[in-house]
Structures are given as C-alpha cells and as structure tokens.
C-alpha cells in the first residue's frame, strides 16, 4: 500500500507540473503572435507594391508637366526665331535700296561738282575785282568813250555778281546733297550693323533651340529607361505579392488546423481531469472496498499523465514550428 501511495503521489506531482495554467495560454498566444507577425510582413510587402504604384503615378504627372514645359519653350523660341527672320528680311530689303545707288560714285560726283563750283566762283570773283579796278581808273576820265566803257563794265560786273550769287546757291545745294549722302551712308552702316547683330542673335537662338531639344531628348530617353525599370520592378513586386498571398493563406490554414488540434487536445485533457477527479472521489468513498478500485484509480492517473505529456509535447512542437 505504501508503494502504491508513493506511486500515486509521484503521478500527482507530474500532473501538477503539466497542468499549469500559463502553459496552455503561452502556447495559444504564441500561435496567434506568429500569425500576427506573418500578417504584418505581408501587409508591409503589399504596402511596398502600393508605394511603387504611387511612385509610378507621380512620375507620370512629372513627365506630362515636363513635356508641357518643353512644348511651351519650343513655341516661345520658334516665335522669337520667326520675329528675328522678319526683322532680318526688312533690314535686308532696306539695304538693297541703298545698294541700288552707287554711293561711292554719287559721293565723288557731289564732291567734284562742289570743286568745280568753287573754282568757277573764284574765277568770277577775280574777274569782278579786275572790273572794279578798271572802273576805278575809268572814273577819273570824263570823255564819252570812257563813259560807255564804264557802263559796259558795270553791266558785266552786275552779271558776274549775279552768277556768283547763283553759284553760291548751287554750292549750298550741293553741300546739302553731300550732307544727306553722308547721313545716308551712316544709316546704311547702322543698317548693316543691325543685320549682323540680328544674324548673330539668330545663330545663338538656333543653338539654344538645338541644345534645349537635345536636353529634352536625353531626359526623355532616361525617363523611358527609368519607366521600363519601374515596370520591371512592378511585375516582380506583383509576383512577390501573389506569393505572399498564397503563403499567408497556407499559414492561415495551418494555424486553423493547429488551433483545432490544440482545442481538441485541451478538451480531451479536461475530460481526463474530470474523470480523474471522479475516480479520486470514488476511490475516497470506497477506500476500504478493495484492490480493484485502487488499480482503476491508478490506471486513470496513468492515462491522465500520459495524455498530459503528449499534450505538452504537442505544444512544444508547435512552438518550434
């Protein structure tokens, strides 16, 4: 009897250690924590895919804005180029008008005309001086012949003075024409400078248009390469997302199966504990009824202990997985 009591005491100690309440709670919480961690990982991966899609949408907006800016810039530069061409055509047309008249020949003609007029005027003035000197000598003589000569000289002197006056007017007109010619030459020079400046601006503008177009083409090529890479990454992320979805579904199914198995084992253990408790009460009430009741109680204790051990082993395996 002492041996049996010792055996029963040992069984009860094993049972007490196995049946601690926090054991089953820890196992149950561990399974749920694992599921929560897997779901967090899945949501993070799914979020990464969404971020890629959001980035793609943002990049498309940036690309449209860049193309609008490029089109606007090209339109403005084309308008500037057209305006320069228009101004250049006007200046060149004006320059052709100047080129129709040989300016160098006209200048030489005006200068020669002025020189001839100046020489003619000096000759007339010299002749007038001679006539005046002759008139002075004739004035001292009072005969009729001298008087007639004096009158002729006076008429000739008046005529010469009229000619000198006309020559001065012609000379002034020629000088006016020469000044106009000089102003025209200066205007032609400024016009030529304007033409050269407009041509230089046109070349610079054409270079700017070319440079801006090349920069946009380079940006466009780089953008298309980037979009291709993003699409490739998007397909890879989509594939990974499907893999994660399948994995998450399998994990849910495994967790559900494990939870059901754990619940069944716990239920079975509770039933055994209830049976053990009933056996104890029966054994206590039939303490003097014989060896059969004792053996039945020992069998119940052994079965509970084995089931508890199996349940603990099961939980440990679940924790390791």
UniProtKB/TrEMBL annotation:
Residues 63-222, 255-282 form a coiled coil. GO terms for molecular function: hydrolase activity; microtubule motor activity. InterPro entries: Kinesin-like_fam. Keywords: Coiled coil, Hydrolase. One of its GO terms (biological process) is microtubule-based movement. It holds the Pfam family KIF21A_4th. This is p-loop containing nucleoside triphosphate hydrolase superfamily protein. It comes from Zea mays.
